[in-house]
Amino acid sequence: MTNDNDKRLQIYDTAVNLYPNDYRTYNNLGMCQYIDQDYDAAAANFAEAARLAPESGEAQMNLGLVSMLNKNYKDATAKFGNAAGVPALGEALGVYYLKQGDYNSAIRAFGDSKTNNAALAQILNKDYSKAKSTLAAIRMPDATTFYLTAVLGARTNNSNMVYNNLRQAVKLNKNMAAQAKSDLEFSNFNLSAL
User: How far apart are CA 167 and CA 113, in angstroms?
Assistant: First the structure.
């Protein structure tokens, strides 16, 4: 397939019309919409996927993500419970536990995952060594990866790590400059050059 989400949206939109009884088309279309932050459309497609295949763990997990966005944590917990065995569930549960402030459970849910969210849980749990290796192992680092590495630098008083990674984060996402300047993590650093 393709990594271009707009093309994937077109492909899955066509697939829904060609295969209206296949829950996977609705689930995949919903995930593309979720990525595009079109959460209402995503929720509708996840619900249709779950209607067509109530036993689908993937559809249940995705409905749980929507419930979590809506701060309906009780429903999210139930949906995640129905998604047992889905490989991506660990990441979803990790985010759920992060939002609940349960960093130890988040770390357990993420397992050996090498993602920004896993690193965030490790940073918040003050396991800086593990967070550093997680961030270094992310296959395709993005602005958030560099921002989190800068936070790690601030927490370990490594000014080079702060400045080098913030520069890289801002290069990839200009909005990160304003975010960093208002972030208390960087209150001891002069960020005027960002």
Answer: 26
pTM here? 0.80
What's the structural domain count of the chain?
Answer: 1
17 lies in some domain: no
| Tens digits of residue pLDDT in 67-123 | 999 999 999 999 999 999 898 899 999 999 999 999 999 999 999 999 999 999 999
Joined tokens for residue 19? 């295969």
Query: Are residues 45 and 58 in contact, defined by beta-carbon separation less than 8 angstroms?
Result: no
Round to whole Å and give the CA distance between 60 and 133: 32
Average pLDDT over residues 51-55: 96
Question: Sign of torsion, CA 179 181 187 193?
Answer: positive
User: Which letter does DSSP use for residue 137 in this model?
Assistant: T
Domain contains 153: yes
Distances in whole angstroms, Cα of residue 64 to Cα of each of 1, 40, 67, 80, 150:
26, 14, 5, 6, 31
- Please report the pLDDT score of residue 55 as a whole number: 93
- Residue 59's closest CA among 39, 77, 79, 73? 79
Is 185 a member of any domain? yes
* In a domain? residue 129: no
Quote the tokens at residue 43.
Answer: 């929720």
d(CA 109, CA 113): 9
Alpha helices, H only, 36-83: 39-52, 57-69, 73-81
Q: Range of 150's domain? A: 140-194
